[in-house]
Amino acid sequence: MAARPDTMTRSADNTPAGAARRTAPRRGEAREALMQAALELVSTEANFSAISLRRIARQAGVVPTAFYRHFEDLDALGLTLVEETFRELRRLLQDADLSALPLKGLTRHSVELFAHHVRDNRLLFQFVVKERFSGTAPMRAAIHDEIRVLTHALAAIFARFDEFSHIAETDLRMLSDLVVNTVIALSERILEVAANHPEDTALMLRAEKQLRLIFMGVGQWESRPEDRDETDRPRADG
């Protein structure tokens, strides 16, 4: 049976023991404390909508009325967490400079980079994975929009590769969509197993193989003439 990541136990008052209530945050830190408290509680709850504002405030060490100094309502807090998750992911793509890598080395580097990022931001990704399908309508819509933006950003990166110069813009976005869906599925599995566990290694190898198969197929792909609208091609400057 696969090893599971460490999970937080609950204390007698149903507060996650691994996320014990904090002392009151220092001035200027309440917003971050509320965000962190929400992430910690979601990691042990069914989903974000099941958690009350009062519980989040209590976990953060602030009075409930202080919540409204930073967020209009719970949806605003949740949307901020979604934005934070994908902002960091887009920054990772930008800083990685994937277009500078040879295509053959892209798959392994990308998988390792993404897996490391997910583990370093486990609570954020747990939040997004749960809310993607079980969250409120605004939350699901926000995640959908962020995935679309990420897909377009990745298509712009692919446009810099000579190996993809024969691919039309619409097909590059389709390629990006396949890659993004593959790594999202990988993130869901990463959250279920411990790092360095044999199953974790198998996950990395499987994801790398899936990406290689995708790129091999693209090498043989021929875009239709009607899809070749160079004016709408993702710009190489991102």
UniProtKB/TrEMBL annotation:
Residues 28-89 form the HTH tetR-type domain. Residues 52-71 bind DNA. Signal peptide: none annotated. Residues 1-27 are annotated as: Disordered. It comes from the Bacteria. PROSITE patterns: HTH_TETR_2 (PS50977). GO terms for molecular function: DNA binding. Keywords: DNA-binding, Transcription, Transcription regulation. Gene3D superfamilies: Homeodomain-like, Tetracycline Repressor, domain 2. This is TetR family transcriptional regulator. The lineage of its organism: Bacteria, Pseudomonadati, Pseudomonadota, Gammaproteobacteria, Salinisphaerales.
